[in-house]
């Protein structure tokens, strides 16, 4: 009798227990793969998230909040800073590029961002051309990220009205005066945006933002004369690292203004998230232990059920090694099937959830990219399968065949 055929027949003989074993391994492997995809998305997002803009200037407050709002379009801004700072920065010898940003409105929950068109060439390079249409050039013209275009079905020439706040209904949550709120919304609804371009996939949070001219906020909200205009933040590409230090020191000393190292602020956020994922790691470890326990119980049950089979195989001349291999092989076969199903399920689950994950977190899941950590997953899972199989196999290996047959 061929070993492979025997292993396969034995596994099919206990369909329910084999299915439960495979299912436990599948769920564990899928969970680990999904966590690896999220971790890789977080690392890539942190790396690509702010481009060359090593220094960011905004209102006093949380440095992490300023970085998240400016580069990831998450959360509320820390406040506003005078627009006159932009002119000063552009004349500063330590500054290579400086772009002001205005935010505060949304369209269907996606942020509307005002920024100079040069931002895209500085961050993504000239090779990133528009997927469709052209760059905005005057008030009311917009370009939209690829995620918005696909999720909302917007095309070149479509028109829409924005709403106050970074998400739908934010103004109600802030408890604004109803009369002022109604007037504000009425003015928002009278201001029409026109889509003139669609960005290619950039694989950053800019894929889920609407971009327009810097002065849109002043036009929509009114009440800001030319001398007292404000912006949400200023993105700065320094010429050198020494220049970055000089910029941070100089502008960080101003009243109601903070200058931050963007990389440090983003790293602080990533560290906080890493600590939060510790709980998920614990859950994953528990799942791995449960999967190993399920394999162990499955093979213990197999040994107890097939004592006479084992005895008969030994009496007809099959070696202890053959018995050992059949039991180890059964555990490995269950493990391999569950592992393959789990890896496929993890990647497919990442593919199905990529739009939702990106919309709510800004993380890009490369769902069909093989993660380096998956090699460790494969080796570890197979190792656990062998270890869980070794105990029952050793039990059958040591028992005398005549005793098994008599019992």
TrEMBL record:
PANTHER family: ABC TRANSPORTER PERMEASE, ABC TRANSPORTER, MEMBRANE PROTEIN
Keywords annotated in UniProt: Cell membrane, Membrane, Transmembrane, Transmembrane helix
Membrane topology: Multi-pass membrane protein
Originating organism: Paenibacillus silvestris
Main location: membrane
InterPro entries according to UniProt: ABC-4/HrtB_transporter, ABC3_permease_C, MacB_PCD
TM annotation in the entry: 279-301, 322-345, 375-397
Name assigned to this protein: Putative hemin transport system permease protein HrtB
